[in-house]
Amino acid sequence: MKRALLAVIATLSFGTAAALATQPPADASPDIVARVGEEPIHFSQLNTLLNSAPVVGLSIPALGTPERNEVMLALLDKAISANLLYLDAIKQGRDQDPEYQKELKAFADGILGGLYRARFLVGDIEVTPEEIDAFYQDQIVAGTEMDERLRAGIEAVIRKDKFKQRTADLRARLREGTAVQVFEDNLDVSEDPMRGDSDLVATYGEGTLTWGQVADEMTTPQNTLSLERRIEAVNGRVDQELMALKGRAAGLGNDSLYLARIGELKKTSLVNLHRGELVKQLEPTEQELRDYFEAHRDQIVVKERRKLLMVVLKTKEEADHIKARIENGEITIYQAAMDHSIHPDAKENLGDFGWVAQGTGFPELDRLTFSLELDVLGGPVESPAGWHLVQVVDLRDARFTDIGEEYTRNTVRRLVLKEKLNDYVIGLRKDAFPVVVYEDNLKRLFHAEGEWIAGKTREMEQHPERAQQILDAMRKEVQ
Amino acid sequence: VDEESIRPFVAMKAQLHYYDPSRPQGRGAPVLDQGQPVIGFGTAPIDIPNCERCHSQIQSGEAPNAPNVPGTPEAALVTQEMNFWKAFYNLDTTAGDSDWYARLKGAAISILSQHDAELWTDFLRCYPNSEPEGCAPLPASPFVQSTRMGHESVICQKCHADNAVGSTKSASITSDGAFRIRPVTEAIHRKHLSISQGGSIAFADSLGRDGMCQGCHPAHRSNGDMEGYPITEEGNNAYADSDNRLGAGGCFVGRDVHSNPLKDVDGAETPEYLNVVGQWLKENVARNQSGLAGSAADNRGLWCTNCHTQLSQEIWKTEDCVDLVRGDCAVNPRGAASIEELATMIGSNVNTVLSWLDPKDNASIDTETPDGIDHTRDIWRSHFAGGVFADAMMAVIEADPSGTPVDTGLEPNGKFNVNVLSLCTTQACLDSINDNKADPSQWLHPEDGGLDGVTGFVDTANTGIPVPFRAADDGGDHWLAAGEPHCADCHAAPYVEQSGNINAFAPFNYPRKAGLMRYSRGHQGITCQGCHESTHGLYPVAPDRDAGPGTPGVDATTYAQAENLNYDGSHGPLKCGSCHQYNTSGVHQRMDDLVYDGQRVRDNLDAAIGWAHTFTEEHSPVGDMCQNCHGDESSGVAVRDGTWQEHAMRGRASRKMMDQVEMELLGAIAGTNPDGTLNRSVTRNQLCVSCHGDEWTGVSCNGTQWKRHLSEGRVSPVVWEQVSVARTGGTCGW
């Protein structure tokens, strides 16, 4: 594993042109694995990124495996790139973009409003073990086993009940001391075409809400929302605005959760904005696309593939004889594979050779394979392995063969843009911002993870009777 | 990863090998049948629902169905999550990247944040894995593994029951369900249905039919083609200006025979046997495009809401049929001669019935439903607050004077166990129970009570009360017989489920009510799904709408499966030749004189298939199958008649059929007493000697002679087993 790890670190350093430093500064977190300018990258960030990555059908490599380390390094590479783009965006003043500022404001309002609602209007809803036990005693049929699922269920029920009590008069409490007026006349569906964007639909204290601010939410392509629903939607918007205002006034702008959220969005949103602008600047010409396609044809074109049944025989005479027997209906190609093929797997797989791509096999065999009609027995042809009888049972056409075709063109455009962006980021790494990867920390953390898993595995092997307990303890530790 | 990577309907293959204990996993040489490997395959339909289409969007005029309202924390968090993945995974749609992955992640945060906001869970309290007060600090140890939520993934099934992943434990945590956490499917359906169509989710097509079913449910295709996908990236109905039924793909549309325009070309082709409901749908929905392009022959089939209707439940409530195939009914609205008669029988009116049959969002169309009401969600709302139509009753149970259900105390694990007095809930049944509390023999249909060993009342001071359907299904996600569509809603005999549903299993299927296809059996005990495919995968499955039959479409696997199983390579339900040797008409080659519906079965596949549906395990062969070879020779059926006793051995009838005939004509299986025990004297002196001399003492497990008596059907298994035990002390290892 050590050798593999060093190899991937070498790849990373070569690909990113990042400087490899053995040790981070003494006062840095032991968890830090790289730094881009002043932006630190933590090992735990990469772990979180990886742990959050799966979707149904995709899994992540297990802890302590070389495969996982490899993926972590790929993620480190991505994190470095994202941070470089972020620093570059700031350097170019992209953070002054009005749309970006507007997005940050809307985001901040949403988060602050949510926090205000949670902290001040609802408050923490604690469910104590005593409450759960009391519910269990009072409400659950005697003898029912109290397991994790039941405990979670009871907790949810109690929490929901408390929540209902606290939110019953939430709007009234929120609006206490603030004059709110919703102008229902300005929400009449039949008046929509005549209404101006600046027409007021609500006022709240000093604040106003205009038709232009809410029109998007009030209409649907097919059926316009009823007046009743519009009024409720406007009231909802007023509530959000008020909560954001009151959240700011309550000092939630310094709340650690707010800062964490806005901090992350400032970076990621700016990276995305900057990348979008770069893509516009890097748009390839038609000639560039064609040149790229020609230069990378081998990597772009997905070759035709065919699924084969194959019987391999020692001599041409034997191959001719077996072919005749198959064609006469004396035996099937499966029987021929099972009883006569010298291919080592033939008895097991009955000559199923799987899928082959054009141009990847023995030349003679390849020529035969890709000239045959479906379900026709071909051969024999000779290769170093023997004499082959081949039948094509399925095929998939070649793809991305013609740059004139739209799908191919779009694919090539994407590849060209990715390459240009990559070159741009490499340029940033080389010339614009210092990038340091702390190799010792990386290796130490990878090693520690691997050792921990290996140790626990040994412990389970030695004490199989405690395997479940050990697993449970591990689960607790990692969570 | 992009959305085109999603490929449902993959083939799952299984190949038969000889067992070889010396090989890994015992996998020996492949078995060949006439030189061909023995490979079976099924379809894995697993798909991914389209939550991200709405949940990754911020609500706007372009995306009115999005739940994330601008200005709310929910919208902010979705923005945050999507920006994160785009930034770190380097995704840019203008560069040609798919942002599907980021949208998927954003949708997950949307759902969790909505859950937090409405139910006050705290899934996102530490999101994005930060350090606010009360959250665990960022892990200093490399071993700590958390997601962006600051903790492990949220597993819905920890609270919500979900039979799809085997979490079948009831989500109710108290006996009366008052503190119920709903099963996950019910929670999701309920949430969306309560706010859709006329609410904040608008999903009707231009004909007013709600398209939300295919908006959410799997609609990807086996080849990754996304053209004509039924929901736009903004979460709108892609067929809002057209017809939902043109969105071939997914669970139903274009796959299921009912929505397959090519079904009569490359599919079922048999007569449809429609009742008045089916006939109305055929004439007014399937072949009537209400002004859209297409000729009368442009058969777009039925839509989800044509079958999942309140009408189905209203019919179910009313009917009282022992056997739908033969029309053995006390009350049979399914047999009504007209829609008017049907409406009267179920206590409704024609306008309501027709509006149930083709429910529409009246606000979005020019022509209203006959009664001017959108009934799309009636079936789901029947038990909701404000539901207009009462839920079907599913049982009469015993309740104490305060109305509290009585606990029989008989549940093995000590849990609450209601006393089911009867599964008949009509007023007549209810009266007969409460008027005769001490004498269950006076009750109407008492045979289905006493499910848990209690017959009658625990205490006659109590009362029998009917309980609604939701009492059985833990909340109202209608997946039991009363709430789901039945074949018999539209089809007439013999294409009705109850042909195989004589022995019902409550609460799935009920006595004297139409069953569900998925729980029913037809021809000789074969499951309906065995020949027709699963409920929504009904053959023919997905020939390409444009390219026509023979070109696999959205579900190439199931299409190939039908072809593989049908002797003639067709793509409809399995025909006789899938199991039997067949003649030139495709009918079982032993068919001779049998007549069905005036047609000689031998020469008429349609008649043969119709007859096969009636020939269930419960059906007597005496006046039926026996007549295929000869006239009425029932008087010749006798224990000592060698010609009769050799029928199974000579392949003239199955031994099972012979047992049926003997029980019907002789009162017991030959060689047994009426209670099923062996009658030694009759067996030895009459049964055995009908074919050979007295070989009683020669019964032995040595050699094959005695064993072949069982395998060749020379004698009933019931007799064979008892003789074998009596003579050899065992069953020869069989």
Observed structural traits:
heterodimer; A: 479 residues; alpha+beta; four-stranded mixed beta sheet; 19 helices; 58% helix; extended; disordered N terminus; B: 734 residues; 21 helices; globular
Write the layout of secondary structure elements.
The complex is a heterodimer of chains A (about 475) and B (about 725).
Chain A: H1 2-16, E1 19-21, E2 32-36, E3 39-42, H2 43-51, H3 66-91, H4 98-122, H5 129-139, H6 148-167, H7 170-175, E4 180-182, E5 200-204, E6 207-210, H8 211-218, H9 227-249, H10 256-281, H11 286-295, H12 297-300, E7 305-313, H13 316-327, H14 333-340, H15 346-349, E8 352-357, H16 363-369, E9 377-383, E10 386-396, H17 406-432, E11 435-438, H18 439-462, H19 467-478
Parallel strand pairs in A: 1-11
Antiparallel strand pairs in A: 2-3, 2-11, 4-5, 5-6, 7-8, 7-10, 9-10
Chain B: E1 10-15, E2 17-19, E3 27-30, E4 32-33, E5 36-37, E6 39-44, H1 51-55, H2 73-88, H3 100-119, H4 184-193, H5 212-216, H6 276-286, H7 304-307, H8 310-318, E7 320-323, E8 328-331, H9 339-345, H10 350-357, H11 378-381, E9 393-399, E10 420-422, H12 427-434, E11 463-468, H13 470-473, H14 528-532, E12 543-544, E13 548-552, H15 556-565, E14 595-596, E15 599-600, H16 605-614, H17 642-645, H18 655-666, H19 680-687, H20 705-711, H21 717-728
Antiparallel strand pairs in B: 1-6, 2-3, 4-5, 7-8, 9-10, 9-11, 12-13, 14-15
